[in-house]
């Protein structure tokens, strides 16, 4: 009787029997367990002398003459003991368990979905529904999704996001249900949008794509609406557009470590715009740190720059500072 190595493994496991074999079975992957169970069902009888040869081959120290009868039943019993009845049923497809519904709301699940799946779903919806879906995503993810959408469609969606009024609750529920059917999740609650959010989304977009988008928006939206968005478009490199007094108000109150991280890898204009707005002692400390040439942690750099941008936008919203025109260097 010529047995394959997997068949010999089944023979060994059955010969070991309870309680030792179930402990070994815990170390097998599910696909391996399925293979072993399938093999066990395929043969019923292994003579004692053949089993002895197998044991000797595996260099085991097993009792002689154990034999192997009804290997499938024995394997079933050991798997049940090792895995439990529920897992055994799932393994053998004898009882399909319905997946437990996610307790996360639909928008939390969507925020963690693959970006290409999101793009496909958004582009399959009508403009109103697509704009609403984008309004429920995190700002950076909304920006990434917009960047992947075709140019004309992108401009139409952003124009809709800028000009659309709040959806009726019934319409919002229908859109949400269509997303839930694809991505799962529970029903949600809460506002779909916040004032100034669109500008924050655009701040996350690639600068070249953003400039192109702003041109495409001009014939689609009212000049005053577009101007209100442009007034809040600010990125870290735009720090040079702030007047000296405005920069001092914001930057002089910030931690030196945060400013150091933000300045790593910047050009001379940006570096000077920041350093000239803070006290001399802090400036010397930061310059000494930057002189090492260390690039720093990319996440720490991004977080530091984002914190500065948030502080600037907060002051703009409160009317405490204003921006110069894009491309304009402040004195």
UniProtKB/TrEMBL annotation:
Domain Flagellar motor switch protein FliG middle: 118-186
Domain Flagellar motor switch protein FliG N-terminal: 2-94
Membrane topology recorded in Swiss-Prot or TrEMBL: Peripheral membrane protein
Annotated coiled-coil segments of the chain: none
Record keywords: Bacterial flagellum, Cell membrane, Cell projection, Chemotaxis, Cilium, Flagellar rotation, Flagellum, Membrane
GO molecular function: cytoskeletal motor activity
Subcellular location: Bacterial flagellum basal body; Cell membrane
InterPro entries the record matches: Flg_Motor_Flig, Flg_Motor_Flig_C, FliG_a-hlx, FliG_M, FliG_N
Top-level taxon: Bacteria
Limits of the Flagellar motor switch protein FliG C-terminal domain: 224-323
Gene Ontology biological-process entries: bacterial-type flagellum-dependent cell motility; chemotaxis
Pfam families from the UniProt entry: FliG_C (PF01706), FliG_M (PF14841), FliG_N (PF14842)
GO cellular component terms listed in the entry, alphabetical order: bacterial-type flagellum basal body; plasma membrane
Similarity comment: family membership: Belongs to the FliG family.
Described function: FliG is one of three proteins (FliG, FliN, FliM) that forms the rotor-mounted switch complex (C ring), located at the base of the basal body. This complex interacts with the CheY and CheZ chemotaxis proteins, in addition to contacting components of the motor that determine the direction of flagellar rotation.
Protein name in UniProt: Flagellar motor switch protein FliG
The organism's taxonomic lineage, starting at the top: Bacteria, Pseudomonadati, Pseudomonadota, Alphaproteobacteria, Hyphomicrobiales
């Amino acid at each position: 009787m010529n047995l394959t190595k997997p068949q010999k493994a089944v023979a060994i496991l059955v010969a070991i029997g309870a309680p030792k074999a179930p402990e070994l079975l815990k170390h097998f992957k599910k696909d391996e367990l399925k293979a072993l169970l399938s093999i066990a069902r395929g043969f019923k009888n292994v003579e004692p002398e053949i089993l002895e040869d197998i044991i000797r081959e595996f260099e085991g120290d097993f009792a002689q003459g154990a034999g192997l009868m009804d290997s499938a039943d024995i394997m079933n019993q050991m798997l049940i003991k090792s895995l439990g009845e529920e897992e055994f049923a799932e393994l053998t497809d004898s009882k399909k368990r319905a997946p437990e519904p996610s307790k996360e709301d639909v928008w939390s699940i969507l925020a963690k979905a693959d970006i290409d799946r999101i793009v496909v779903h958004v582009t399959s919806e009508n403009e109103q529904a697509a704009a609403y879906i984008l309004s429920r995503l995190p700002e950076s993810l909304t920006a990434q999704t917009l960047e992947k959408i075709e140019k004309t469609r992108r401009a139409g969606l952003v124009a809709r996001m800028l000009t659309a009024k709040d959806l009726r609750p019934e319409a919002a529920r229908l859109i949400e249900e269509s997303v839930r059917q694809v991505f799962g999740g529970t029903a949600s609650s809460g506002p779909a949008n916040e004032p100034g959010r669109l500008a924050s989304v655009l701040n996350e977009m690639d600068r070249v794509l953003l400039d192109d988008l702003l041109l495409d928006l001009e014939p689609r939206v009212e000049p005053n609406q577009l101007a209100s968005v442009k007034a809040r478009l600010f990125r870290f490199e735009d720090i040079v557009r702030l007047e000296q007094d405005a920069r001092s108000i914001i930057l002089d109150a910030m931690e030196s470590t945060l400013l150091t991280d933000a300045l790593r890898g910047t050009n001379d204009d940006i570096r000077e715009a920041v350093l000239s707005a803070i006290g001399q002692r802090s400036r010397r400390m930061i310059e000494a740190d930057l002189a090492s040439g260390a690039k720093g942690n990319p996440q720490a750099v991004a977080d530091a720059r984002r914190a500065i941008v948030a502080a600037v936008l907060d002051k703009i919203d409160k009317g405490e500072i204003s921006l110069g025109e894009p491309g304009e260097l402040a004195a």
